[in-house]
């Protein structure tokens, strides 16, 4: 089978995932955030996928879950058997399996951030929820949190996965979209401790200290069977123990005025990758470039190794910068170059595109 269809949707540091079967087009929605329902529905349509199930990796404290907006008779909700959430759901045990079309994912219990925290592993990726982050671990100062248990469950159940496994966390605070198990073994400062007790001692976290009034209000709604959700809810907390802990990386960038000359000198399309969504690329793109959607970049890391410099473009230069930072942190490309202004900047110089110009 080919790689899963993957769409990563980021909102105020929260990351949700649409994971689809390329054969049946059935799709799993992971950790939907309230207020983003229209975007999820739009992406399902744009990617030609049908929602088959919804999954919350744990009981969220920082934001409201939109699971009740999608679950129903034909779209079940999946959560850990350890959860206190009162919604009708399919309960998951450690090592149980979720099927989405022809996709198969193993459920891994990773308690610590919450007692009901789970991860999903399969097809070269692991969705880690709020347990393992990029360069960090989850907060462990909410009611029910246990920092020693968090460290030990991440080390014994996630860090033992194959090194090339893509790490897809529930939050991203450093403009880096995904990681790998191997990269976290090398780069995650929270994992240097000898054991969970040593990690807990380094944090000196007090259980319940993170339960602000906003957190408690979110938990109350997220536990309810049929909550009344506000139209535009906001985040009330960060869920990473050290969301600002990574150093900023420097990425080279070319100006729109220089893009055409650089493009003309390329040795082949593999030196310039467009990371927009498939429907954007198909509508119109720069000739002589390759295409890998940003969310699916991790499935193609070997394609980019050794291509220095690698020029990366998108619509305006924002998603391509995320791609460049991600590839550089992983050590896949030493010198990724962001195409400033993206295809809009390219067009502003009067340069042609194949198909319809981007707007």
Number of domains: 2
First-to-last CA distance: 35 Å
Task: Report the radius of gyration as a whole number of Å.
Answer: 21 Å
**Biggest pleated sheet:** 6 strands, mixed
What is the structural class? alpha/beta
Helix content: 10-25%
| CATH topology description of the largest domain | Metallo-beta-lactamase, Chain A
CATH hierarchy class name of the largest domain: Alpha Beta
Structure description:
The protein has 359 residues and is of the alpha/beta class. The protein folds into 2 domains: 5-223, Metallo-beta-lactamase, Chain A (4-Layer Sandwich); 252-355, Rhodanese-like domain (Oxidized Rhodanese, domain 1). Helices cover 25% and strands 23% of the residues. It has 11 helices and 21 strands. The protein has helices at residues 37-46, 67-70, 147-157, 181-187, 196-203, 213-223, 256-264, 278-283, 301-304, 318-329, 342-348; strands at 5-11, 14-20, 26-30, 50-55, 77-80, 90-92, 97-100, 103-109, 118-122, 125-129, 132-133, 136-137, 166-169, 179-180, 252-254, 272-274, 284-285, 290-291, 310-313, 336-339, 354-355. Strands 1-2-3-4-5-6 form a 6-stranded mixed beta sheet. The protein has a 6-stranded mixed beta sheet with strand order 7-8-9-10-13-14. A 5-stranded parallel beta sheet has the order 15-20-19-16-18. Helix 2 links the parallel strand 4 and strand 5. The longest helix has 12 residues, at 318-329. The protein is globular. It starts with a strand and ends with a strand. The relative contact order is 0.12. The model has no long low-confidence stretch (mean pLDDT 94).
